[in-house]
Amino acid sequence: MTRKRLMMIASTGRPFREYILADMSAVVDLILVDDRDLAWQKPYVSRFRQADPRDPVAVSAIARAEAPDGLVTYDDALVEMVADLAAELGLPQAAPAAVRRCKDKAALRACLDEAGIGPVQFAVVTDEQEALAAAEDIGYPVVLKPRDLGGSIGVVRADDKEQLLAGYAMTAGTRARFSEIDGPAGVLVEEYLDGPEFSVDCLTWRGVTHPLFVAEKVLGLAPYFEEVGHFVPAAPHPDMDEALRLVREAHRAAGLDDLATHTEFRLTSRGPRIIEINVRLGGDLIPHLGKLATGVDLSAATADVAVGREPRLAADRSRVAAVHMIYPPHDMTFRRLRLDRDPGRLPGLERFETIVPEGRQVRLPPNGFRSRVGYAVITGADRAECLTRRAAVEAAVVVEGETL
Predict the structure, then answer these.
(1) Phi and psi (nearest 5°) for 60?
(2) So what's the pLDDT on residue 181?
(3) Strands 5-9 and 29-34
(4) Which domain holds residue 167?
(5) What is the mean pLDDT of residues 120-132?
(6) In the chain, N or C terminus with fewer CB closer than 10 Å?
(7) Residue 377 sits in the same domain as residue 360
(8) Residue 300 in 3-state DSSP?
(9) Are 335 and 244 in a shared domain?
């Protein structure tokens, strides 16, 4: 049988994304468009076309010449361009308007509020005085965030006017530092949502949204929202079924279909509330954790959907997988990440990886975000075993460097 051909737009982030190319290449022939020479991608790529993946004219010309069966990207900055091109070429993909709606956190918030799906007070502001007025209207604490960045970059909680002014200056300046693509203007001010935070990776195929695995977030470095770890599956919670119902309703309200999504939500004292829907595969290795825990290969399923083929979503195991993000204890010039013992003495340690080069300056929020120097992936037969194994790995980690 002839294999389907899937065009991948950009392939950044080997430590966190290589598994995606590996899993996709098992079910389709990958055509990669990127501006850097092939390196780690070589084993997974059937054809390579060198071009700026952020140039819609160049990417469109390549797509028309290659005539793939589908288009896909895991780069958050490129999801709108890929949706537009897929629509032009008549390829399977969510509607561009739905992708744009989710990419703009304020537009999605308005859509969900209008549909009565877990209403959250919010405002879009363009200066400090508007931010102060919005916070007074909403009531402290509030959360400030850029409208279209991912990974909790630039997101901060403010409990009073002084914190709000400092937070606004930081958030407003973050977008220019972390994105090369123009986005919607203004800063989003939202009511603070209490309770534990989770994410769910879904696949929507022909109008049906399938929540595949829920990850329990471990947050740190308050008042910022750095994601320092994840567990799959999450611990049981009485409101989880209601949360997943809201997630399915939110996908319908947003008009999403034929794609993978990564939805973040909180189980608050007033019930579940959706934070955002990311119209791409989840980051931080969460789909990989899902595969380790359940056997569901979301990357391969995403490739199937992108080429118009029914995905395979049956689970074949029940384990627990976690990722522990390793941060420096303070701002530093990074030198080395190591374990203080033989990895063979750490049961369940699936992967231990350094992700920044020696000599890199690493700064914690608010001077830097996603300030990880490495990560560890750990598995266990159940939650208790995984927690115990994760704690042992965390205790063995040594980060070396000079204080800045």
Answers:
(1) -60, -40
(2) 55
(3) parallel
(4) 121-191
(5) 94
(6) N
(7) yes
(8) helix
(9) yes
CA–CA gap between residue 337 and residue 300 (Å, rounded): 32
Is the pTM higher than 0.70? The answer reads yes
The alpha carbon dihedral of 301, 305, 307, 309 has a sign of positive
Are residues 319 and 228 part of one domain?
Answer: yes
Under 8 Å CB-to-CB from 186, ≥6 apart: which residues? 106, 124, 125, 126, 147
| Model pLDDT, residue 157 | 96
The pLDDT-based confidence of 62 (bands split at 50, 70, 90) is: very high
In the sheet that holds 332-339, the strands lie side by side as 361-362, 332-339, 397-403
Residue 173: per-residue pLDDT: 82
Residue with token string 């509607």? 95
Q: For residues 275 and 197, is the Cβ–Cβ distance under 8 A?
A: yes
* 266/353 same-domain check: yes
119 bridge partner residues? none
* Cα dist from 58 to 28, 53, 146, whole Å: 23, 8, 29
In one letter, which amino acid is 101?
Answer: R
In CATH, what number is assigned to the domain containing residue 126? 3.30.1490.20
pLDDT tens digit sequence for 194-224: 999 999 999 999 999 999 999 999 999 999 9
Rounded-to-10 torsion of CA 105, 108, 113, 116: -140
Tell me which residue of 295, 298, 274 sits closest to 285, measured CA to CA. Answer: 298
How many domains would you assign to the chain? 3
Q: Is the peptide bond before 343 cis (omega within 30 degrees of 0)?
A: no
Instruction: Give the model's pLDDT for residue 176.
Output: 66
- Both tokens of 28, joined, read 């389709």
The SS3 assignment for 79 reads helix
Tokens of 87: 């629509």
Q: How far apart are the first and last CA of the chain?
A: 58
HSE-CB for 62 with a 13 A CA cutoff: 25
